[in-house]
Amino acid sequence: MSGPLSGLRVLDLSRVLAGPWSAQILGDLGADVIKIERPVSGDDTRNWGPPYLTGVDGSSELSAYFLSANRNKQSLAIDIASDKGQQLIRELVSESDILLENFKVGGLRQYGLDYESLKTINPRLIYCSITGFGQDGPYASRPGYDFLIQAMGGLMSITGQPDGEPGAGPVKVGVALTDIMTGLYATIGILAALNHRERTGEGQYVETALLDVQVSSLANQAMNFLASGKVPQRMGNAHPNIVPYEAFPTADGDMVLTVGNDKQFARLCEVLGHPEWADDERFSTNRARVANRKELVPRIRQATVMRPTDEWVLELEKAQVPCGPVNTIDRVFSDAQVLARDMKRHLSHPKLGEVPTVGNPLKLTLTPVDYRTAPPLLGEQSRQVLETVLGLSPETIDSLVREGVVGDVAE
């Protein structure tokens, strides 16, 4: 294996999205990731479909959801509720650098697989826990799901059409964005802990929670409230601090304008055929445009609706005005820039053939992202991991499979 994290081993005891997303990033960067799953059922998302990707002979399938977060991993199916399964995890911990888990608070303590227990086996272990609400506080025992956290963490209160307009009401983001951001923060914490371990030789406990991440990610909207005391409201596609910065209708669809400064606005006015707007004291500065958005935005809409999207984008790009079409996802993956950046890739799988995957956005010049393996079938590498990492004999593994401690893809 290659990559900046080559030589590190990760035990991924997480499931669904936030934890697996973090583990996939670590795998992309070269770490050896062993995904620990329940025999028979595996990660919940294996059954979150359709759609599924099915093998040529129809005997194997993986859900698209599972495929999104589990490349560059080996699947080892272990029943951690059994004594022998717990012992296998402890033996793997002694040979690992990082453990990721997203069980409920205290959920692994009953198995002796919590941080306090495992750090006695491996003091260099970096143990990352992801929960919905954190390890303490009045909500600590609650389960957390992305949709729930988007609501409780304020994101849905600022997403959707304003009150009084058609379709008004809170709306969730179209992907599980809080899960994704939590996976990113978990990865950052793990990398920071690795740097600390490099200097001191000691591992540590890393914790992050979906609610904490969502509150943190309110970013400027949170500061708008803290600075002014005014509660941000839903504004559709409009921006609370910048105008024009939203979607505008065209003759054949919609386009987005993201005008970030006054010079860009002046160039926009030229292209729209209304250079006088840039000299109008109501619109000449961003501060004025925010105050007078109700007068300005309808004027821009009346202009943009006169020509097709592609014509506007071509002219506005020439004028260096930030803009773009509102692409459907099929258009995203046929976009020349997306293709040029290798954001659509394929991986070979022994039973599923060519498996599509979305590229990692990290570009490293000396240690590039490594696309080694497609997301695994449940228990696909159980025997391989137990043989190579723990040195178990085929006979011992056969016995563990018969007892139901270990799941084997060949079952």
From TrEMBL:
Transferase keyword on record: yes
UniProt-recorded name of the protein: CaiB/BaiF CoA transferase family protein
Taxonomic classification: Bacteria, Pseudomonadati, Pseudomonadota, Gammaproteobacteria, Pseudomonadales
Keywords: Transferase
Native organism: Marinobacter koreensis
Entry superkingdom: Bacteria
GO molecular function: transferase activity
